[in-house]
Amino acid sequence: MAMIAKQCPDIPVHVVDLNQTRIDAWNSDKLPIYEPGLQEVVQEARGRNLTFSTNVDAAIEEADMVFISVNTPTKTYGIGAGRAANLEFVEKCARQIARSSSGHKIVVEKSTLPVRTAQAVKRILSSEATNLTFDVLSNPEFLAEGTAVDDLLDPDRVLIGGESQKAIDALCDVYARWIPRERILTTNLWSSELSKLTANAFLAQRVSSINAISALCEATGADVDEVARAIGTDSRIGPKFLKSSIGFGGSCFQKDILNLVYLCEHFGLPEVASYWEQVVTMNDHQKQRFSERIVKTMFNTVSDKKIGIWGFAFKKDTNDTRESAAIYICRDLLRERARLTIYDPRVPAEQIRAELTYACTDNNGQISEVDRQMIENNVEVVNDCYEASRQAHAVAVLTEWDEFKELDFEKIHHSMLRPAFLFDGRNLLDRESMESIGFEVHAIGKSSQRRRSDD
Ligand code: UDX
């Protein structure tokens, strides 16, 4: 919405939310989301044609177009628990729009939704006996975190699904202010809804596929980066999204795949469901494999050993930790009784503790006393990589922050215990130079056979 406001100064954009604290943050200099370039975009438009407030009803009443941009987390209870999307917030929005509207509205689904949600939205909108007429559009967002501003300024495509050509044209006209018409694709409602889930499923599948191969590389002496380069130069495959890692995280991939799995099951397609579910299973395996490798390498025990953790966000350039692979790796290491000193340039200590607590909580909302104490006593959040590594038995790189590449590695090595284990979960650091400093390097998809003879 901030980008639309920036690019279309004559269109008033009102962002409304029930949560006053969030709205206050959007009105302040400290935005609730860290995203390179976002501050500037908001600053340019805020107070001109972009406002943030809690006046939900008034904003709906005034608007010609209403974007529903609420979250659709995976359901944690009842039918479809652990897979289906929780549509409670979407439904509440639709009901509020129905209550507060008159005349004609274009209602745009911006949230990622299961196929045929538009049907439900339409029924709710038409159930209120008002003089409201409306069109529903689906306009999924393809931006990735960390590159959101660039992705919005110059997207590969914009997708608009709908039934009414007039409504589709109205939204096309907004995007066409800065995006070439040929990059604005229009489809029917259901194709648009399904395309978003499918795009994320395909992207996540590529990561799981290369991660599956990384396990084989470690076992055979092949190098996953070399394999990725070799296959990525095949123009049919392409080079992107082939970076092997500790596993994908973020708010979308796992949630959307599980949602797709649930939809397939719902429509009586169990084989299709299990095909996609394997992408998530592979991702869980990749996270577990990494923590197991750490334990195994460190003489089968990390109990009471200090491990420096570099990075906690699900990828660089974001403060988002939702489904970050780091959470599960840290939890598993803690359960092996390791002591963790964690540093992330953008994630605050309380958020790290909250994520670890959540990861240790069972389905009934309970956390064991052992886990609780372990998070309290064995997790220290520190202010830089040097502090995280001092007197450590090992360092594990879990997020690919650029600043991790520009450290004084001699100093870090000097401050660590011997052997100085370096587990590179992102293949971020140059292995040869790290080895020449004296680190024992274990990287994703690289065999550990090539040990230094003096270790
Ligand atoms: C994703 C989609 O890219 C975006 O189009 C959609 O709108 C929302 O979901 P996002 O979750 O922000 O975006 O991040 P993305 O860059 O896709 O990365 C997802 C995860 O995959 C991260 O944990 C990242 O580290 C991991 N990843 C990505 C890899 O491990 N290897 C890769 O080659 C690429």
Report on this structure:
Helix 5 (88-100) packs parallel to helix 6 (117-127) and helix 9 packs across helix 11 (253-266). The chain is of the alpha/beta class. Mean pLDDT is 95; it is low at 451-455. Strand 4 (104-109), helix 6 (117-127) and strand 5 (133-138) form a beta-alpha-beta unit. The strands form 3 sheets. It has a 6-stranded parallel β-sheet, sandwiched between helices. Helix content is 45%, strand content 13%. Bound molecules: uridine-5'-diphosphate-xylopyranose. Residues 141-145, 200, 203, 207, 241-243, 245, 248-250, 252-253, 314-315 line the site of uridine-5'-diphosphate-xylopyranose.
List the helices and strands and how they pair.
Layout lengths: L1 H6 L5 E4 L3 H7 L11 H8 L4 E4 L2 H7 L2 E4 L19 H13 L3 E6 L7 H11 L5 E6 L9 H6 L4 E5 L2 H11 L8 E4 L1 H32 L3 H9 L20 H14 L3 H28 L8 E5 L14 H11 L3 E5 L5 H11 L9 H10 E3 L3 H5 L4 E4 L11 H7 L5 E4 L6 H7 L2 E4 L12
Parallel strand pairs: 1-2, 3-4, 4-5, 6-7, 8-9, 8-11, 9-10, 11-12, 12-13
Antiparallel strand pairs: 5-6
